[in-house]
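Hey everyone, long-time lurker, first post.

I ran two proteins through the pipeline my lab uses and got sequence/structure pairs for each. Pasting them in order. The first:
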Amino acid sequence: MTDPLVEAARTRWLPRFLAQGVPLADATGTLDRIGRWPDWLDAWTATGDVHEELARVAGGQGRRRTAGEAYVRAALCYHFAKFTWLEDLGKYRAATDRSVAALQAGLRLLDPTFERLEIPFDRDRIVANLRRPPGHARAPFVILVPGLDSTKEELTAWERSFLDRGVATVALDGPGQGEAGCLNRIRPDYEVAVGALLDALARRDDLDRRRIGISGLGMGGYYAIRAAAFEPRITAVGVVGGAYEFARMPDLVRRKFMHGAQLDDADEASRYAARFSLEGVTGRVRQPLLVIHGKHDAVMRWEDAERTALAAPRGEFVLYPEGNTVCFSVAERYRPYLADWIAERA
């Protein structure tokens, strides 16, 4: 009998794996090898190891692009090895570190503009990957905010949509996210982290600080809207999987939330989750706001996403009737639309 957690992950996240850049054969082949949830991390790590070895071989042959692309695929596999898997926190942390290192190795080979940013924050730091479009001396930029179980290592395919349109990207691991999540727990006032990031970027001459977009996926949509409401330096905000509140939490989502919030008690976690609400917040968003949602989102109801858009003075709502959770099943449709929308308004 199939492990229900494995089956739930397969059903919900296969479109996500493909949209974010995992090859179809790798995604299905890895999933087919997993019989029990405890085996998840090892199976995905093994797939990542295949690509990391391909990268080493190509690098030794002087094939920089081939090596860089293989490192990016390895980073994705190491990320998906642990994105919702919390059975062994030592292995979870090791997979996080391997994902970070593989992506850095890949981007250094593929993108001469890539920079890693480390910004002191609270008890630790926040970390971001900055990439700039070639040929733009002073480009507008968009802050890309991961969701509850995503990190900056998952966002390279999404970054490309903006870079191709002349918009620099700043993919952020904020409190409780990715490598920034070791000491700082997730927090509802995400605008504090965004403000720290913008303060650090204010000293740069290669970014247009008058044109700053922000975009988030899933729970990152809540973070992006919240940041825009309290951070006037942001000029446009567009989110996918727009959350108004977090009333529905499937088992894997609840586990991840409790881990990110550093809480062991389910009742306490529910009370903390109630603080992640846009009640009284969305009306403060004076910037143009785009909310994109899938009608079949398993975590966030499309009616709540529409409510979020309508509560903003300049809000727009786009519903994809065939879209799944965070619209990964229609990524090829929403990504260019969102990137054009932000490029035109930021």
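...and the second, right after it:
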Amino acid sequence: MYYAWPMPRVGTLGNPEPYIYFGTFAGLSFWPGGLTLLAAAPGVGKTSWLLRMIFEASAARFPAAIGCYEHTAEELKFRLRLQSEAMIASAHGEADAAEVEKCLALGSEAVLLPLSDQEDTVRALEETLLQDCSFPVHGAALLAVDYLQRVPVVGVTGMVSEERRGGEAAAALRALARRHDWAVIAAAALRSAGFTDGKELSALLGDERVPYEADRVLLLRHVGEVRTCGCVGLEVLTLKDRTGPTRSWRMSFWGQRFYPALDGEAHD
């Protein structure tokens, strides 16, 4: 017996615009259910950029958190304080302590989670955010993960090596984003050969699933020489973007204050 199953047609498709941004934080727009990878060589400023993103998301009253396998909570708080000084007094000006406290209070709901690369899997991070941090079961929220290759993945024979775990971790983070309609951005490591010329997706450390799973892949790199004051130019290259055409843009990094400054923010 032959059964004719109804087929979806163009006129009856569900959501005609799946990439509706709910906010732009630190110059980068986010949409529910999306996974972004931020690739950079060590010391370029990716952790600081992630911090500014979650601070601004929290200030806009969205649930926001950074799960960090690289730094302690005290180190992250130190960077956020210096970033608040930058917001008030630019790269090198003297910031009033009371004004710094007011600035910090704007993003005080941001969650800083130091994580263990032996225990804190994606599932464990998810449970912590839902049970302890009041993240919504479904709803707009921003989660930053620093960084992808440190996320523990347990295989049949034990812990998967850092170079091989990236694809599995990316898949788990993408599923997490879609399960809860959160936006997830994870820092990703580059192969050492890609530090100076990482313009291709193959420059990302790990197997081919790392860039495949992501909706968007950005490359952050220094431009020009580091100034004597510790500041340096930054360039952001889009290596992949399912939401639209690729693009590139400039930023700068105010090294003394761990501050990723957007184009147009004055360096004084």
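Reply from user beta_strand_b:
Welcome! Quick read of the second one: The domain at 20-262 is CATH 3.40.50.300 (Rossmann fold). The CA atoms of residues 55 and 131 lie 21 Å apart.
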